[in-house]
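How a chain folds remains the central question behind the approach discussed here. This step matters because it turns folding into a mapping between discrete strings. The sequence in question and its structure tokens are set out directly beneath this paragraph.
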Amino acid sequence: MTDKLTVSVLGTGIMGAAMARNLTKAGHTVRAWNRTRAKAEPLAADGAHVTDTPAEAVQGADVVLTMLYDGGTVLEVMREAAPALRSGAAWVQSTTAGIGSVADLAGFARDHGLVFYDAPVLGTRQPAEAGLLTVLAAGPAEGRDAVTPVFDAVGARTVWTGDDGATGSATRLKLVANSWVLAATAATGEVLALSQALGVDPQDFFDLIEGGPLDMGYLRAKAGLVLGGGLSPAQFAVATAEKDARLIVRAGEDNGVRLDVAAATAERFARAAAQGHADEDMAAAYFASFEEKPGS
């Protein structure tokens, strides 16, 4: 198989659009679709073929890449694409979905003769745009030559977690990683909110922990978005973070683990969304500490 592929990208939001651009830069033929076509249209300037339907997008594709909101949305869109899917094509499923959803999606792949790869990614807007995502992948070794060029175009590193995508081993690792990311995001917001409430300059806190085991680049990056007014455009949106937090809580419940921090984090994101911050960066969970936006 040639290294230059025809790749269908279904879902061109923050992550999907960046992945599509990097695939075109790598020389692949990209056929892109998004439910709101206007979000996909800018990709035409990068050389992608923007289509009106999922079926048009997957026509003749060597690889189908899905980067949509959740598992239910992926299944709905793939059903729309089903008439045009090519038996034997690889399906790179990169949407962060629940563990149960992975089994459903793998079943769809089996029924339609697709080679299924459970392949969520770690990273937000900036690493996605730079092609520096970390791909977590599970799927058959014998088909990896077909998807490796895709992973190389969108990511700096691929971590293989198993040979059977249906087990959801990559998604399981993604949920574990996201549980830490989302907890750290919520904690960052609370540190800033408490600083404000107590009249403490946040910089005094950063100076206190600088260079020690409590210091963290991610803390400083997310705090900088709040303090510097850089919440839009989002690196990773509040609404999507809430969805992921609830997937994490459900995964814990289904496996006998109570995740109090994840549950509280989901509620913080929900409050921030209700305050009008749903499309802002997830660092905007900071505002959930207040009845109204500070300064309003």
